[in-house]
Known about the structure:
This protein has four helices and 14 strands. Strands 4-3-2-1-11-8 form a six-stranded antiparallel β-sheet, with no helix packed on it. Strands 5-6-7-9-10 form a five-stranded antiparallel β-sheet, with no helix packed on it. The protein is elongated. By secondary structure, it is an alpha+beta fold.
Amino acid sequence: MKNLSAIKxxxxxxIAGTVAASAALIxxxxxxxxxxxxxxxxxxxxxxxxxGSFIYDADTNIFSxxxxxxxxxxxxxxxxxxxxxxxxxxxxxATDWAFVDALTGPxxxxxxxxxFFTNGAQLTNAGGVIDNSLVPGPSMLSVSFAKCLNSGCTSxxxxxxxxxxxxxxxxxxxxxxxxxxxxxxxDEDGDGVLDTADLCPGTVIPEAAPTSGELGANRYALxxxxxxxxxxGKKGKDTFTTADTGGCSCEQIAEAGFLGxxxxxxxxxxxxxxxxxNFVAAQ
Length: 283
């Protein structure tokens, strides 16, 4: 087995794309899961209420699965409106973003939007709570609705909450709007190891090894569909799981370590498996 410095050198090569089967080894650990942000308790007036959720990945600044809705029992310009598209007219960031009900193109007349401003509080992949609790000083969460009244949206109707006053200077509510973020756990390749801890994205079970069709003596590979414990050849007494190997199969271990063809043909030797498991434990 290669020593740790050799493995790290291999990893740099993988990240560069020279070994496609195990791309992004170890560096994947630096990525975090995106967060589901739930929005609730927001009232523009006694009757207009907004709530919903969206997913945000702070690593990539990508918003997805947007589903914010507004309803008004007495009817208004924002009655029963769903905001499901990131607004192209607002440079989205972790502190300021907007959603629209539809992409209306160059003629934005009638376009409805909901905009969030956190006064510097960041949406992060750790999640947490951001609200507009009315305490001394500026609120951490300010939200506004707008409806474009002309093609260029230079004229619009708006309502705000998260602060104590609307654009017209009238007090509109004393309710608390809250964003609550919960990290989403993802195991994209289904190998039993969450993406945040997975050293080998794209693991396939059962894997190609052993290409001979039978494991050699004291050799290991993931040979049974949806089973995360390595099958062992004759004399194999050790037990290894994908949790032990950081989500890596025998063929990925062989690829990363530049091991000989024998490991693909007969399965990974117990010595290589133990060395890899020790390497993973040291990360």
